[in-house]
Amino acid sequence: MHISDGVLSPPVLAAGFAIAGFLLFITLRDVEAEEIPRISLITAAVFVASLVHFPVGPTSVHLVMNGLAGILLGKRAFGSVFVALTLQALLFQHGGITVIGVNAVNMGVPALLAWKIFEGRRAFPSPKREVYFGSLAAASAVIGTAMLLSLSLLAVGDEFKEIALLVLIAHLPIAAIEAGVVGLAAGFLVSVKQEMLVTAVCDGAKS
């Protein structure tokens, strides 16, 4: 899910940083000190999960876990994803410095989508609603990231059309895996530590 330096055009890179900066401002401007440990923990999980890459033709796939960040952090998920990607670029050269903005948007926006999807569970009385909506949120986050990445590549030109399609297809199994993992995790957490899923931010106390 990382685009490397030298692939995208300067206008696309600039747009990525502009959008990422705006989203960082609106999602972190009212963050409080007691939220930092929680954000740091999930950031570490996203950082580690997406470090291991599996080659698929000219591209590669890896776990994304932005859906997990979304259901655990709410709107703070974008900042978590941004920090994880920045550290990966600086420490391990995964992606690149110039594409941090675009990569953060590609992974962070679907994380926010996952949060909103998961919040939809409140309207359903099913005892398994956390499992169902957690799975849907995770799958949507991965597919959303793959779609945004593909669109970023297509913005360069038709020469990336085949790779963009391959990215979408290659991440369908990842979406299924993360749907299962995150759904089960949400079901487990709601029974043992429900406050991990329902933060003040997600409940609307600060949004």
TrEMBL record:
Coiled-coil portions: none
InterPro entries in alphabetical order: CbiM/NikMN (IPR002751)
Signal peptide (UniProt feature, chain positions): none
Topology of the protein relative to the lipid bilayer: Multi-pass membrane protein
Keyword Protein biosynthesis tagged: no
Sorted UniProt keywords: Cell membrane, Membrane, Transmembrane, Transmembrane helix, Transport
Origin superkingdom: Archaea
Keyword field contains Transport: yes
Transmembrane spans: 7-27, 39-56, 68-91, 97-118, 130-157, 163-190
Cellular localisation: Cell membrane
PANTHER family: METAL TRANSPORT PROTEIN HI_1621-RELATED (PTHR34229)
The protein, known as: Cobalt transporter CbiM
UniProt source species: Candidatus Methanocrinis natronophilus
Lineage of origin: Archaea, Methanobacteriati, Methanobacteriota, Stenosarchaea group, Methanomicrobia
